[in-house]
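Hey, quick one: can you model this chain's 3D structure?
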Amino acid sequence: MGKIFRETASLSKADLFYYDTKEEKPVIICMHGMYGRAETWSDFIVHYADQYRVLAPDLRGHGQSSKPDGYYTIDEMGEDVMELMEILGIEQAILVGHSMGGGIVGYLAARYQNKVKAAAILDKTAKGPKKHTPILSSQVKQYDAFTKGWCETFDTRKEALECIKTSSGSELETEYFINSLYEDKSGYHFLFSKQALASYRANEYDWMDLLPRITCRTLLIKSAGEESVTMQDFVEMKACLKDAIVYTMSNTNHNVHLAEKDEFYQVFDQFLDSIKK
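Sure thing. Here's the predicted structure for all 277 residues.
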C-alpha cells in the first residue's frame, strides 16, 4: 500500500483532522465510536488500501479535531463528514461506522442517498430516546458516565494506564483508550472532550425511522453480546432496511472490527464484493 496522509480540513463549524490514502480509487470513509479517533481504523486502512481510497476522520470532539460548542448529534457530525466530502471533491463513498459512527452512517445514508454507495453499521442500535430539542455542549450539566471519575490530567503514564485498566473490560478496550492518550508540559491527557461526549449522550435519539429511507445495500454487524445491540433490535433494524446483509460475530467484544479481524474482514470482503455485482 501507499502512504497514509494526515490532513486537517477547515469546515464551516469545525476543523477536522483525517487520515487519507489519496488514491484514485473508489472511496471508503470510516467513522469511529465514542472516545476513538482515526487511528482506530489503521489496520482497516492497510487492509483495503490496495483496492480503495480510504479516509478516516477524527470526528468533532475527538482526537486532533476541534472541540467547538455544539450538539454532537449524529446529524451535526454527519454534516461535518458531508462537508469534508464536498471539500475533497468526493462524489460518492462507501461508509462504515462503529458504534457512535454507525449512527452517523445511518443518518448520512438516509439523508444523502445519492452520495452513499453502500453503508456498514457496526454494533450500533437505532433504538433510543424519543427525539427532543438538543442541548449545546456548553449547557450540558451531566458528565459522561464512563469517564466521569477520570482525572483531567495525569502526572505519569502509569497513573493514566491504571485508571484506564480499572474501567476497561478487556485488553483491546484498554488499548483503544491508550491510543487517545497524549502528553504535554502539564502531564498526560485524553484527546477526546468529556463535555462533547456528555453532549452526545444527552442528545442521542431513536433513529429507527431513518432506516426505511436508506436505499443502498447496508451491512449490519453486531457482537455476540447483547450489551450494545440486542437481538430484538437487530431483527427490527433488518426488517426496516430495503437491502440488508446481517451478521453476528463470534466474539462478544463491542469492537467488532478489531476483536476478530479475520472474521470481520471475511464478512466485509463479501459485502464489498456484493456491491460490485
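One thing worth noting: The chain has a mean pLDDT of 95.
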